[in-house]
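Record 1 of the preview.
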Amino acid sequence: MQALYAQLLVGLINGSFYALLSLGLAVIFGMLNIINFAHGALYMMGAFVAYFLLNNDYLSIGYWPALIVAPIVVGIFGMILERTMLQWLTGLDHLYGLLLTFGIALIVQGVFQNYFGSSGLPYAIPDQLKGGMNLGFMFLPVYRGWVVVFSLIVCIATWFLIEKTRLGAYLRAATENPTLVRAFGINVPRMITLTYGLGVGLAALAGVLSAPINQVRPLMGADLIIVVFAVVVIGGMGSIMGSIITGFALGVIEGLTKYFYPEASNTVVFVLMVLVLLVKPTGLTGRAA
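->
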């Protein structure tokens, strides 16, 4: 039973990363209609920025400030990408955005791999989150419990921001009827840029949280991005709550599969994606265009 609980914990942790990454993808696709294939590279960049902030002799600001600064830095980088490249794809077929962001991902990964190689760089767990707790039925590492709880809080806060606030209403309106929103004096291009920055900032936050568990590697995003896209498709393209629920749920299902039938653990997500698309092509919570 301890092995089962351990796999469930691993599944919850992976589900936390799936939920944060798919949430960022859902925000970008739902608001901007861009299939952001650079998401995995920006997730990796967030981990590397946190690594530099923690280990640089001149900065060395520690884990907690890096948890805030790294997503902001990567978010600014994402906004520059949107203003210089992605904004020109407005109104074009989704394939153009997919190809452009895929090329950006290859460039970013290639640059980091050229300078740092393919091996992982260690990232220290902060002193406040070291150790673990004996729950009776299993031993819970404090940092892993923190990742699950903090990811859930961030996901719910993002959903609330987009679905329940005036700013979120402006964002949704700007994507559905930008001409009308401009008539009310709202700077639509700026809102779109900020939305893309928010989406990639969530990916960078997942990278920072992942760094002490999975180490910092140039290809760490490439290992996750295909699974995350499957999560987004299952939950429904552009569905915020669907991405959150599906991310955590599929992480748990993947963990259970590793315990009961390890050979299928790498394919169970894609099998579920096929089954969902056969029954409901828009995803579990998605809407038809």
